[in-house]
Amino acid sequence: MFTGIIEELGKIQGLRGLAGERIFTIGAPGISPLKPGESVAVNGVCLTVTEGTRAGFTVQVSPQSLDRSTLGKLRVGEQVNLERALRPTDRIGGHLVSGHVDGVGKIRRIEPEANSRRVWIGYPEEVGPYLILRGSVAVEGISLTVAELKPEEFAVAVIPFTWENTNLKEKSPGAGVNLEADQIGKYVEKFVQGRPGTARKALFEE
Known about the structure:
Blueprint lengths: L7 E11 L2 E7 L11 E4 L2 E8 L3 E6 L1 H6 L10 E6 L18 E11 L2 E7 L13 E4 L2 E9 L2 E6 L1 H5 L11 E6 L1 H10 L14
Antiparallel strand pairs: 1-2, 1-6, 2-5, 3-4, 3-6, 4-5, 7-8, 7-12, 8-11, 9-10, 9-12, 10-11
């Protein structure tokens, strides 16, 4: 479990394939050393550390994770958002994030907004029912708030600190981003599933 508060920007230092999987070596001295078996979120995807050093760590990514996220498109030299697993005594500065990506969105446009930026993201159909105006959403593992919500796209406001300390500053329109909707919405849907007249839909701004 994670909170969506990015601890460090890591860098892909090594990449190799293994029977449909990927093995990444990631430079991350700020959160290292990590022990084998620890969980770490890489661009919002929960992965298990297989090797750790004082300079970084190695993770192995399954075919399913590659299919459901943007990790399969990462290249050596790219920056990635990193967060270690939540401890029971930690403050939850963002919201509860599982690290299980719901779908891949696409950045449509980035608009200046005072000193911040408003980032518009197109979302896949399966994510829409869980998005609500002023609700939480994890984008590349970053806990953000839905500032505007429309059919097929939503906007998040990104303050300067978040922009400078995550990989969002490396993104441009057309780039894919990992999306994880707030878990509360998923549980609510599960409880009401099957009731007569219940339909899955996004709650759009009027």
